[in-house]
Amino acid sequence: MSGTHSNTLIRKLHALFPLSAEEVAVLEHACSRMREFAGDVDIVTEGDRPSDCNLLLQGITCRYKLLPDGKRQIMSFHCAGDIFDAQSFILEVMDHSIGTLTPCKVALIPHRTMLDITERYPHIARAVWKDTLIDAAIFREWMTSIGRRSSYQRIAHLFCELYLKMKTVGLTEDHIFPWPITQTEIGDALGMSNIHVNRTLKELRGEGLIVLKDRRLIIKDWEGLKEAGQFDPAYLHLRPADEPARAAGGGERIAPQ
Amino acid sequence: MSGTHSNTLIRKLHALFPLSAEEVAVLEHACSRMREFAGDVDIVTEGDRPSDCNLLLQGITCRYKLLPDGKRQIMSFHCAGDIFDAQSFILEVMDHSIGTLTPCKVALIPHRTMLDITERYPHIARAVWKDTLIDAAIFREWMTSIGRRSSYQRIAHLFCELYLKMKTVGLTEDHIFPWPITQTEIGDALGMSNIHVNRTLKELRGEGLIVLKDRRLIIKDWEGLKEAGQFDPAYLHLRPADEPARAAGGGERIAPQ
DNA sequence: CGGGGCGTTGACTGAGATCAATTATGGTGG
DNA sequence: CCACCATAATTGATCTCAGTCAACGCCCCG
């Protein structure tokens, strides 16, 4: 397959770090083949040594770890455009699993291709690197949520984050977006019980901030939700809309003072 | 300054991803100058746009975020050999702060140098990238600890992790290593109150697992501590001692099957 | 000798986990 | 179209871990 399916990725990377036409073309030909998965199955499992990176084209996945006592921690959610295991071509052994929450389509990029591309196109390397660094920034923010925010704040914060993530790749409409994530999964992501998630959602509904219905989340009061979750999008490192894109293919990148 | 002080870094990177003599030489000349800090001050502050990366030569630092309501989340601890803000040359704006816990010495690597090096030496880029990916893996593990492990497990887990981190750069002796971290700081790292940290430490002491005295941690029962913390070092991605180092400077890297 | 930071301990309180049902919801086959 | 089943959501009652408040001891340092 060639690049028709990687547009979401291009769009996202481009938003992070503008690439030249040649660089975009390289990326579009990087995907060797496509795979489909049912909902609720593993794409990659802890301990695996994958030979490809996965680019999510459709559906929602989560990154998680299972503890010896059966508890689960979900560490991130992913949507179209995410290379959710970019790290696998550098770290070799997976220290966690990736599972689907809905039926999913992914494109495969062989590790060998990743190696070639990142050696020959430092800008692409830096764009993908940047993407993994933003993932890390999101991990840190989640850590902060779980460690120091109340349940109410945590859930509000998660809603804000996923709204912006989905908006970036065009999956939102007004303030409405798909929400296939169950309450138990929210709990496993935020370190709380499914029961408590349920009660907290009721509160958020009661405050008129959100409506969660038919697997879709409606944000009724964006400002209110942001405040409820102490949400500051800085950690997502989205390029502010008013910042001019760096000349594509240019050789330098200077932080604006 | 030239490379005499960057040996710890070289040692660490080398352990992650063997480099050629030329590559090592490049790294040794990357540091432009050195700075010293007192204990309990910020090296980098949230919102900054640093122009250099910091390589920690001596002392202990932490990565943290302050919340609007005054709560603090510590997201990592760092010791000699850590480039604790490698991300800053790609992400530009700091989304968190770095503070010293003890007096510290750091070497500065200008972002411009980082850009040059990572463009011209893809192996170095990959080594530093790998380092940032391991940081991310540690974030994920902390998230798991905070979200799903009991206080007792969390503290045991933290002790195990820092022991191995320090051991890698030669800061341990038998099972003893410096512990300048206060109970309040442990609490801010693990999402618990200083009082509860105190009580949990008492428990760990009572079980004969550790002794914390004179700012030094003594692990009395390594196997017991690992078990108490459900500690599995896989997420640190340390190269197993028996795995032969890749030929330095070689052009490929193939995951052993 | 006095004060500030850190550690320790006790008593009280509360957010959120656990246990136990009950009620949607959606997909399946008859 | 409906009975059936599994999954998810909801609600109530109870319990517990850990946070908060308050006090005190220790030690270092000026």
How do you describe this structure in short?
Helix content of chain A is 41%, strand content 19%. With 257 residues, chain A is of the alpha+beta class. In chain A, a hairpin with a 2-residue loop joins β9 (210-213) and β10.
Structure description:
2 copies of one chain form a homodimer. Chain A is built from 9 helices and 10 strands. By secondary structure, the first copy, chain A, is α+β, with helices and mostly antiparallel strands. In chain A, strand 4 and strand 5 form a beta hairpin. In chain A, helix 4 crosses helix 5 and helix 6 (151-168) crosses helix 8 (194-206). The termini of chain A are far apart. Chain A binds a DNA duplex (30 and 30 nucleotides) through residues 150-151, 182-184, 192-196, 198-199, 201-202.
Output the keywords.
disordered C terminus; 257 residues; four-stranded antiparallel beta sheet; alpha+beta; three-stranded antiparallel beta sheet; DNA-binding; globular; 9 helices
